[in-house]
Amino acid sequence: MTILVTGATGNVGRQVVEHLVKRGADVRALVRDPSKAEFPAGVSVVQGDFLDVDSLRNAMSGVSTLFLLNAVVPDEFTQALIALNVARSAGIERIVYLSVIHADVYVNVPHFAGKFGVERMIEQMDFKATILRPAYFIQNDLTVKDVITGYGAYPMPIGPKGLAMIDVRDIAEIAALELLRREQAAEPLALERINLVGPETLTGTDIAAIWSDVLARPIHYGGDNTEGFEQNLKQFMPAWMAYDMRLMGERFLTDGMLPEAGDVERLTALLGRPLRPYRAFASETVASA
């Protein structure tokens, strides 16, 4: 009984592997370059790529449960569909897929629409899966730490509706727990969707206020300008991705990322502890600077 973790060298995937190993699971990690992979002892590392079908067939041979995580790339949808088809051919029924909250609402945002298409395939092909739908990753804000501390402004286009931001560490632990629940079940469990949210829903002004408290000086919110947000992103990412992120930011402003009733309580019970708040992340970030 082997769990295959894709995206294993990324921030979420690496932590999923670590949680699974701590809990005694037989883990196989799919990586592009095994020479750069650093995992706990006992993890089986296999080289592969989502667009290399033969490598996927090899990686999925003998696997009982799959963690599917696709990077935001131009062909993300194609990569996910290939992986699911190969998984089906390999006899893998038990899957945990990392999607995104409101994938069915942010229909004009490319990487949201792609993930919703993958969700539909999982459902239509009758995979026994947990579809995890995380809200905004708290750790995304590490990319703007220097702007916050150096210019006194929080630049992310969060807006007035609010986002139920979640810590990446909580995402990874929940994913590992769901993988183990499905792996250890006597029979494949029915499809389920779980919103992954943080303990509070924060607006752009709320987040600026948290940083003001943590840094003990005024931090202003200035993130509603999505055009400027796109131009800034183009300095360090491809233009298509910067535009994708701008479209996402525009939906933040109009729709927000809001939890459903009972989401926080469900996740708290699953983890057996409170979810990590944004303030804890901000305090840790400042302390480690």
TrEMBL record:
<protein>
    <submittedName>
        <fullName>NmrA/HSCARG family protein</fullName>
    </submittedName>
</protein>
<dbReference type="InterPro" id="IPR036291">
    <property type="entry name" value="NAD(P)-bd_dom_sf"/>
</dbReference>
<dbReference type="InterPro" id="IPR008030">
    <property type="entry name" value="NmrA-like"/>
</dbReference>
<dbReference type="Pfam" id="PF05368">
    <property type="entry name" value="NmrA"/>
</dbReference>
<dbReference type="InterPro" id="IPR051604">
    <property type="entry name" value="Ergot_Alk_Oxidoreductase"/>
</dbReference>
<feature type="domain" description="NmrA-like">
    <location>
        <begin position="2"/>
        <end position="248"/>
    </location>
</feature>
